Amino acid sequence: MTRIAVVLGATGLVGEAVTRELLAGDWAEVRVLVRRRLALTDSRLKQVIVDWEQLGQYKEQFAGAYAVFCCLGTTIKQAGSQEQFERVDLHYPLEAAALAKASGVKQFLVVSSMGASAKSGNFYIRTKGRAEDGLAAAGFHGLHIFRPSLLLGERAQFRLGERAGAVIMKAFDFAMVGKLARYRAIPGAKVAKAMVNIALADTGGTHIYTNEVIHVIGGR
């Protein structure tokens, strides 16, 4: 099968790792929709600079794609407001999903968050849950939702809270066993590998992958 992938958020930690993982495989073409170009070169890599507020203008980029990897995400601090955070973590993924579904994409894979729930009292968790619910309603052949714990890896944009959390989580990783395993910090590259592995499995239905499951799938 000739497979074409579309990556959203390819300049982020997981998104860039997904792009590299796809290019390391036998995917025929990897299209990345980005605000700025990646420092990657490959004959199969197609970089498209997009205006996310006008995403509908790029509908043709989803045509013929087998899978969409949605790795969009920000923080309220970086976004500047809750409203802008919602644009990136809720509205953009749902707009992309609508375009992908209309273009016949079979598999949609998205990075969400631990505990995501539209009923949560926490704004961040609630927004992630609303995004999950909206994607589930889109009707993809296969919808795969990944809920990692704290992500490890070097980001282009420095996040002090994440960096401090990563140091603490790595120091106590040896103690994260049993029920605590679900909270173990996870490398962005492992999440990426899990996403690509699942896409290749071509599984139908809606599936949620918790942090401990991602550790296993991404370790294969």
Features:
7-stranded parallel sheet, two-stranded parallel ribbon, 9 strands, alpha/beta, 19% strand, 220 residues
Walkthrough of the structure:
The protein is α/β, with parallel strands linked by helices and 220 residues long. The protein is 38% helix and 19% strand. The chain has helices at 13-24, 76-79, 82-102, 123-136, 160-171, 188-201, 211-217; strands at 4-8, 29-34, 45-49, 67-70, 107-111, 142-147, 151-152, 186-187, 205-210. It has a seven-stranded parallel beta sheet, with helices on both faces. Strands 7-8 form a two-stranded parallel sheet. The longest helix is centred in the middle third of the chain and has 21 residues, at 82-102. It is globular and about 45 Å long. The two termini are 22 Å apart.
